[in-house]
Every structure is written in C-alpha cells, then in structure tokens.
Predict the structure.
Amino acid sequence: MRIASLRRSAFIAGIAALAGCTRAASGGDLDAFMTKSKALTGYADLDAQLGATYFQIAGASAPDRAILTLWYTGIDGAKATTVTWLQALAWRACSFTKPPSQCAAPGSWHYKP
C-alpha cells in the first residue's frame, strides 16, 4: 500500500477545514481573524499588533491563501509593499537561517566580533 505524501500547507489547510476555519471572520472580528490565522499557520503566539495590521489589509473575507501569504512573507501583495521583514513567519519556518539584516551569533560563518 502506497501512502501519498502531503505538503505541510495542504495538511494545515485540511486541519483548518476540520476545525471550521475555512470561512473568514464574520462581521470583521479581529479575534476571529487571529484564531483563524493561528489555525492556518500552526503558530499560537502570533503578534497581535501585526495581526491587526494584516486584518486591515486582508479584510474579513480574505481567503486562506491570502492570510497565509501575509503571515509567511510579510508582504501585502495587492500593494506590493513590505509590511514586515523580521517578523515574517518564513524565518521561523526555516530554522536554519535568519533574516539577512540580523546579526549572526558567535560560531556562525559570517560572525565578526
């Protein structure tokens, strides 16, 4: 029996669908947006202030993909502007690296005291 591989994003979307998080927050509720964002991203400690900014950008009826794009890239695709660089979840998801603008710790190949 062959088991099909499942990408992380597809898995998280499936879990969110089971949890009833496939529809955007009704009435423009920020708390519902943050709950949905936490379910979609898999991170329970999302920054509330950044979430409020993303909520203003995406709105209450934003599709899951748009919400994930905001959180992971920190880029508002509609305006092609960077909302955040350092707090984009891509840096947390890629634990082997950090934003190029951050100083490296001692022991890193590009650390210079």
